[in-house]
Amino acid sequence: MKFLGTYKSKSKDSASNFIYACQSTNHGCRYFSQRYSIFSWYDQGICMTDDAWFGVTPEPVANQVAKDMYDSDAKKTVLIDMFAGAGGNTIAFALSGRWSQIIAVEKDASTLACAQNNADVYGVERPCITWVHGDSLEFLDLLVNRPEELHPDLRVDLATTVVFASPPWGGVGYSSDQVFDLYTMQPYDLRQLHNACYPMDHALYLPRSSDIRQIAKLAPEGEKIEVVQYCMEGASKAMVAYIPAKNISEKN
């Protein structure tokens, strides 16, 4: 796991090694026509990798999620973006001005370089994003159980931290099943995600057809889970489950 430090403005050429032309491959090209919905400033120097096209949150949805999370408990001042990808959600959270610190974790170095570049394109110059190159579940395990092994800038207080997770939606059926079984999602299923995040309030960005009954079982005793469908042009793009923290003794 590599701590990359607090974000500083950088040259738009910094991620040039990771830029690709969509026309050079069939991979991701069905999203190219949606590029201005994904990043409205796409022509200003946005960088993407092949795989990033499949995971980035459309900008209007990212902005609405950031707005909804703006109104969360005022005592929560730190946000961890578990799957930063090309930076769509991270940028929206940073531009909201709500969080004193944002930790953005991404395991693919090329995608992370694109995210840093894209944050620069959107003018995110304040030192509020801390970039981490590493596995997000490993990072959260260290934060919860062995924080002394982390860089001092990453040893945040769990009680004041919120986690946002937009995981890969791999697995059979997420786009075709009427109700998607979240325990078949790959490479991280619902149980793995919740077990990694449960000591903190967490928001899970999930397929729109996700099984609500599976999500409901994650509610702490006496608490409720809020589930919101996020739509564009009259069609749902995804749902977000807002899940309160559990005590250690309540772990599933």
Automatic annotation (TrEMBL):
GO terms assigned for molecular function: RNA cap trimethylguanosine synthase activity
Substrates-to-products reaction catalysed: a 5'-end (N(7)-methyl 5'-triphosphoguanosine)-ribonucleoside in snRNA + S-adenosyl-L-methionine = a 5'-end (N(2),N(7)-dimethyl 5'-triphosphoguanosine)-ribonucleoside in snRNA + S-adenosyl-L-homocysteine + H(+); a 5'-end (N(2),N(7)-dimethyl 5'-triphosphoguanosine)-ribonucleoside in snoRNA + S-adenosyl-L-methionine = a 5'-end (N(2),N(2),N(7)-trimethyl 5'-triphosphoguanosine)-ribonucleoside in snoRNA + S-adenosyl-L-homocysteine + H(+); a 5'-end (N(2),N(7)-dimethyl 5'-triphosphoguanosine)-ribonucleoside in snRNA + S-adenosyl-L-methionine = a 5'-end (N(2),N(2),N(7)-trimethyl 5'-triphosphoguanosine)-ribonucleoside in snRNA + S-adenosyl-L-homocysteine + H(+); a 5'-end (N(7)-methyl 5'-triphosphoguanosine)-ribonucleoside in snoRNA + S-adenosyl-L-methionine = a 5'-end (N(2),N(7)-dimethyl 5'-triphosphoguanosine)-ribonucleoside in snoRNA + S-adenosyl-L-homocysteine + H(+)
Cellular component GO terms held in the UniProt record: nucleus
Family annotation (Gene3D superfamilies): Vaccinia Virus protein VP39
Pfam families for this protein: Methyltransf_15 (PF09445)
UniProt cross-references to InterPro entries, sorted A to Z: RNA_cap_Gua-N2-MeTrfase, SAM-dependent_MTases_sf
Recorded family membership: Belongs to the methyltransferase superfamily. Trimethylguanosine synthase family.
Protein name: Trimethylguanosine synthase
Origin species: Clonostachys chloroleuca
Taxonomic lineage of the native organism: Eukaryota, Fungi, Dikarya, Ascomycota, Pezizomycotina
